[in-house]
Write a structure and sequence with these properties.
Structural class: alpha+beta
Radius of gyration: 51 Å
Shape: elongated
Number of strands: 18
């Protein structure tokens, strides 16, 4: 200690030798410090003025007045309905009135009155509300005219209140700008004082640095200052580590000794209501989570750090909120526990958002499971992260059991390998695979057909993170297509369309005009006696095939095969615009087809085939006949009988085609060129028809010559 004292004395002597300089520098430091302190006080006052101002609350108050006016107007607009509630109008009136009273009274009223034109606006709005109070109280549901009158008078306030909101916002912006300007000026002054203080300190340190190094006392003081600086730094780090909104501190008894002022703004609680109490003393009566609080008390009593302790509380308005706190114990230099320091945050909005997200995920999962189609998601390792219930049932697995497994493990066999290869293609290219048909045999051995597609989901870097697969079960559709194809082998295309689209049998009987055509091979019975059965059936099959193609070409319905003949109708099951024309064109094309066929047969050394065609146009009856086990679509009526008689008349007139005058005239009306429509036919006069009392005018067509295609066959 003697050596230390000598060093201190030496330092003091050295300082005394430079006393005038020290005094000047000390005086300068005092002046700079005093000026800096004064500047700091001014800055604190400016910050306090900014903090104590109403700011957004003042603007919010005025805007809320405008919003309450709009809600009142909306309630008046709905009052025109008989089911409207007049109490809603009165409640909105009271809320609007309370907003105006807030803008007139107290410090808010004083602040608003100081803003130009706002005081008059609020006063006039209050006067108008007072004047309208009796009329609003007398309003009843359905009284739309009186409600509209009140609404029109109140609507005059809307632009004025909106202007008041704008003026208030502008006034607050101007006030903030003025404070900001003052603050910048004070900060600039503080900067100048700091520079002066820094320069004076540098000079003083330059003079004292050698003396400070030589004195143990000054060295000890420096060490103490350094230790204090480290403690301050550690305290700052503790707060930063907690990283939250308000700061708190407790003593060794775990009672609060400090709460930052942010608590009131962020949670609605008053710091003075919390100080001196332990956190568990503030526990809500309806907080029944004993396990949560037991863990917390065990942690703080063991002096362990607190992380993510969540508990409910109520704000000053009684609303339930949730807070999350972090804390860290601190100790003195001897290791004695001194308490906790930490931060807190209101996480009510976070919890509500998390709950909404959880509910949305639950809803999305329910929707995915409800879709009657395959939906799954795989990761970049081609392993399932999601599978809906429909697909799980197809594979005979539980949806949650497939997570982390591959297509081969779930689907197995060739189908699983194909699925994995398609996934690899999406993963490699980053492009979706369009819908395509795939065949699959499910766990029951049922053959299925999928209409599936794959789409990549990319991360922020553009890499494939997930692969989504969607597939529709088109097994039934494929079966329907096969049934339709088989149906078309027995019915004409237009009948297939009707039968495939009908929900039930065509039971409805109806009547309209249609063209009826009969075609028959002449002398086929005699032909069968001279030819082998196989050859006879080959002829009739080819005849039917050739004639059916022609019927379908002209949109006809092949009603039935009648041995070596057939019956066709045009305009069934639904009438068309050119039914008569198509009937004549079909008859003409059939005759030409037989001529070309005969040319082929003669070239092969075979007998020619003679044909008889009769056609008529008129009213027919259409409907199903038969029972529930077997139905047949039938075309009945005198028109059918006449067409059959005309087909028989071909033998009498020695021509291949005989048609009625009714068919010819209808074809002329349907066609722009009537002569072209009936080309090749000639009027054969009036003839008696067997079974009919009235003779008919008939038209005939001579047998056509073979076309060049028919004649050019090899002999």
């Amino acid at each position: 200690m003697g050596l230390a004292a000598q060093r201190v004395d030496c330092g003091v002597s050295s300082i005394r030798g430079k006393r005038p300089t020290y005094l000047v520098l000390a005086a300068a430091l005092v002046i700079f410090i005093a000026s800096l302190a004064n500047t700091g006080l001014r800055l604190i006052r400016i910050d306090r003025d900014i903090a104590e101002g109403f700011g957004e609350n003042l603007v919010w108050t005025v805007v809320q007045g405008e919003i309450e006016l709009l809600r009142l107007l909306d309630a008046l607009d709905r009052l025109g309905s008989e089911t409207a509630e007049p109490q809603e109008v009165i409640r909105r009136y009271d809320l609007f009135w309370s907003r105006l009273r807030i803008m007139q009274e107290g410090e808010v009223g004083a602040r608003l009155a100081a803003i130009k034109r706002i005081g008059d606006t609020v006063s006039s709005a209050a006067a108008l509300l007072t004047e309208l109070e009796p009329e609003i109280s007398a309003l009843v549901p359905g009284d739309s005219s009186r409600a509209e009158q009140v609404r029109e008078r109140l609507r005059q306030l809307q632009p004025r209140l909106h202007d008041a909101s704008v003026w208030t916002a502008q006034a607050e912006l101007d006030r903030s700008a003025a404070h900001a300007q003052s603050r910048r000026e004070v900060l600039f002054e503080a900067l100048l004082y700091l520079i002066g203080l820094f320069v004076a300190a540098l000079l003083l340190v330059g003079l004292l640095i050698r003396e400070l190094r030589q004195t143990r006392q000054l060295t000890q003081l420096a060490r103490l200052a350094e230790a204090e600086a480290k403690r301050s730094e550690q305290r700052f780090r503790d707060v930063v580590d907690a990283a939250s909104d308000w700061i708190w501190e407790t003593g060794p008894d775990h009672c609060f000794t400090f709460i930052s002022e942010q608590l009131a703004a962020l949670s609605g609680e008053k710091p003075e209501d919390v100080l001196g109490k332990a956190r568990w003393q503030l526990r809500l009566p309806d907080d029944l989570d004993d396990s949560n609080w037991s863990k917390y008390r065990a942690a703080v009593e063991a002096h362990e750090p607190i992380r993510n302790f969540v508990f409910p509380y109520r704000d000053r308005k009684g609303r339930r909120h949730f807070s999350r706190v972090h804390g860290k114990p601190f100790f003195d230099t001897d290791g004695r526990f001194l308490g906790y320091r930490g931060t807190g945050r209101d996480i009510t909005a976070e919890l509500e958002a998390a709950q909404e997200i959880a509910e949305s995920r639950k809803l999305l999962r329910a929707v995915i499971n409800a879709v009657p189609a395959v939906i799954n998601v795989k990761d970049s390792q081609l392993r399932y992260v999601l599978m809906n219930e429909f697909e799980a049932q197809v594979y005979g697995v539980a949806a949650e059991e497939v997570i982390g497994k591959s297509s081969v493990e779930i689907a197995g066999g060739v189908f699983g390998e194909e699925s994995r290869e398609l996934d690899r293609r999406v993963l490699a290219t980053g492009r979706p695979l369009p819908f395509a048909e795939r065949e699959f045999t499910d766990r029951h051995g049922v053959r299925r057909f999928w209409w599936s597609a794959k789409k990549p989901l990319l991360d922020e870097a553009g890499a494939v993170r997930y692969i989504v697969t969607a597939a529709l079960d088109i097994t039934q559709l494929k079966a329907t297509e096969r049934a339709r194809s088989n149906l078309s082998r027995y019915f004409s295309p237009n009948m297939v369309d009707v039968l495939a689209g009908a929900d039930e049998a065509l039971r409805t009987v109806r009547s309209h005009d249609a063209g009826i055509l009969f075609a028959d091979i002449i002398g086929f019975s005699q032909f069968t006696t001279t030819e082998r059965p196989e050859q006879a059936f080959a002829v009739i099959r080819e005849f039917h095939a050739r004639m059916a193609r022609i019927v379908f070409r002209f949109e006809g319905t092949l009603d039935k095969y009648i041995g070596d003949g057939l019956m066709a109708s045009f305009g069934t099951p639904r009438p068309g615009r050119l039914d008569a024309t198509h009937t004549i064109q079909c008859a003409r094309a059939m005759a030409q087809e037989i001529a070309d066929w005969n040319a082929e047969r003669v070239a092969r050394g075979q007998h020619q085939v003679r044909i008889a065609i009769g056609a008529h146009y008129g009213p027919v009856l259409l409907g199903d006949i038969g029972d529930e086990r077997r139905l047949e679509f039938a075309v009945l009526g005198e028109t059918v009988n006449i067409a059959s008689r005309l087909e028989g008349m071909t033998r009498q007139l020695r021509v291949p085609v005989v048609v009625s005058d009714a068919l010819i005239q209808m074809a002329r009306r349907e066609s722009e060129d009537g002569a072209l429509a009936i080309g090749g036919f000639a009027n054969a006069g009036v003839h008696s028809i067997r079974g009919m009392a009235t003779p008919l005018v008939v038209w005939v067509m001579e047998e056509p010559a073979p076309t060049e295609a028919g004649l050019a066959l090899p002999r």
